[in-house]
Amino acid sequence: MIIVLKPEASFEHTERLLARITAAGLKALHMPGSERVVLGALGDERVLAELHLEGDPMVESVKPILAPYKLVSRELHPHDTIVRIGEVAIGGPVFQVIAGPCAVESRDQIRNTAMAVKAAGASALRAGAYKPRTSPYGFAGHGPSGLSMLREVGDELGLPIVTEVMDTADLELVAAHADALQIGARNMQNFALLRAVGKVRKPVVLKRGMSAKIEELLLAAEYLLAAGNEQVVLVERGIRTFETATRNTLDLNAIPYIKQRTHLPVLVDPSHGTGVRDLVIPMALAAAACGADGLLVEVHENPAVALSDGAQSLYPAQFEALMAALGPVVRAVGRQM
Ligand code: PEP
Ligand code: MN
Asked: Fold for domain 83-332?
């Protein structure tokens, strides 16, 4: 429920209303604006109705939040949220490109790839030390030593690092190394992980599940915000459809849809979205054109020998070409590189 107060509502009156909302077992939000104060009340709709806030003399209007997600909705929070990963602002005027190999494979591999993406203009480095693999025999990442290599290279090159956390048992260690925590597609509805990550004061990069509806992605983000973490970046990374020509179907409809309904920034991952190296650049440009706040792109110093996702990883020279091609598209839609 969104409760708009009259301009003459006093501080004390506002405090009393917030206390009433809290006492009813609801989550109370205080959103002072330049002209008037807006309150939020989240929780059981029946309890909300019983409060009869519309009858309060200092309440101008009471409006239900129609979407099932509340804290992530634009209804409650009209202005864009800017998420900071290190010094990098996601969701502001600058289109941000986060790049790196699928996995940290060795010190040389992560360092060489990081140097290449930095030279081409990437603003953050992303690689996995814990990899969710379909087969139990696939390379599942180096774990703690992968985290250390990633942190060292990030520090050396001055790039913030993003890496996936798959399990609550690893959360403390991953959070101690990373500038942002990725929750992967397979864990988008791991509610225990969402609740735990929601309590950490680190930005989160939340990927859409491969069979998740947009509403489910936004409700997964709601878990993070409800647990207290408002620094959430959403990622469209392709969904499973009947189409098998590509690894996934990159749902670019989701970008303007999400931007219209939520205040959270959204990135596109054209690497997992297509699974095909030669489709990454065109879909990355399309992502910029349709209003994404940036990209998550896989780049490998030598994709031919990558231990995971080589077929969708760009060669460094292709990444450089992508960065050059993005400029005019990004500017055409009113953003900056
Ligand atoms: C990844 O980012 O390398 C990854 C495993 O992605 P997703 O969770 O989107 O499949
Ligand atoms: Mn990958």
From this structure: TIM Barrel (3.20.20)
